[in-house]
Specification:
mainly beta, 33% strand, globular, 3-stranded antiparallel beta sheet
């Protein structure tokens, strides 16, 4: 399976996410760019999850119905054509990192999935719901990991 190349101008893979994107700072989504979306893609799905959260994997950003022709998203924006879903805070759109003070740095996995048909997810989809829905039929995916610590 070919991979989508996913990048962020604000941080490199496995590097620290700048504070401005955190929940207790500006709480704006970081800029992302992507390439190598395969032909036959009907929809892109973007998921940002923190598997190191004390209560289990936490959804920080979930966007469905992203236009396959889009090549990225600017800071603080919803990807073109995308539908911002509820995050783990119960809010639609981006909810920035906010790990417990004193924890080791948490990992934030930004994952972009290319799907051959629109995905169906529950209203309050968990990261597990997303993985179950996309893992079988995805055409390709790309991942970048950011780190954050308070």
């Amino acid at each position: 399976m070919a991979g989508i190349e996913l990048k962020c101008a604000a941080f490199n893979d496995h590097a620290m996410i700048p504070r401005r994107y955190a929940k207790d700072d500006e709480n704006i989504s970081p800029p992302l760019t992507w390439s190598r979306v395969p032909d036959g893609t009907a929809e892109l799905v973007l998921l940002c999850e923190d598997p190191d959260a004390p209560s289990g994997t936490f959804v920080h950003w979930l966007v469905t119905r992203i236009d396959p022709a889009a090549g990225g998203v600017d800071t603080g924006q919803t990807p073109p054509g995308g539908s911002a879903r509820k995050n783990g805070y119960g809010e639609a759109g981006w909810g920035g990192p906010h790990p417990p003070a004193g924890d080791d740095a948490h990992r934030y996995f930004f994952r972009l999935y290319a799907l051959p048909e629109p995905v169906t997810l529950p209203d309050n989809a968990t990261a597990d719901d997303v993985h179950r829905a996309v893992d079988e039929g995805q055409l390709a995916s790309g991942t970048i990991v950011g780190m954050f610590q308070r």
